[in-house]
Amino acid sequence: MKEVTRENAAALIRAVHLLAGQGHTQFADLGGGRPMNRLNDDNLPDLATVAEAEQPARQWLLLDSDVSAVTAGRALLGGEGVAVVQQDLRHLPGVMAALHGHLDMSRPVVVILGAVLHFLTMPEAQLLLDALWAELASGSVVVVTHLTGEGADPDTVQAGAKAYRTLHGIDIYPRTRQEITGLAARFDLRPPGVVQTIEYEPPDAGPAPVPGPHFLMWVAERS
């Protein structure tokens, strides 16, 4: 599973690099977790650093409910153009207030929901995406990676979710391709559509797709 998690992070890096290169300067990493500043085993850069390399004047909002993630974010990402806010994605007024408080919502924003929607129930995830659709300006982009159990034995997936809940005290909801695609319903999917993270803007050389439970990914635009 470590390889799958790494590829999820690498796919998000590729997406941010691509979107910043296309001219996007405002980013909101919702549920972004703890920045590592290359202190992780894989020596991967933080997404904010990737965007800054392409757009030095980028504006970056990191939002997470976990106090340790927020503390690390303020320590490692602090600086001009960066805001770090503690907020639960289920509290939509607080999420929208953070977006409006730190970004110019009259202009396009790239919203990153990396490996986080599977911690929300389907109604909670849909409400969040509906709220984003209502608040985002035309030309904004939403990037989603989501755990799926498709292609794996259902009993194994269910057992994995139960074990995760026992270990971490948090419910997790692996979903089907159809369900993950449905979350993008109000947005316009960009090519290549809903794919495994390994398939999104793949580098010239890299590891083969990892079998079993994995992450699916989509990038979609607010028209």
From TrEMBL:
Family annotation (InterPro entries): SAM-dependent_MTases_sf, SAM_dep_MeTrfase_SAV2177_type
Pfam families: Methyltransf_19
Protein name in UniProt: Methyltransferase
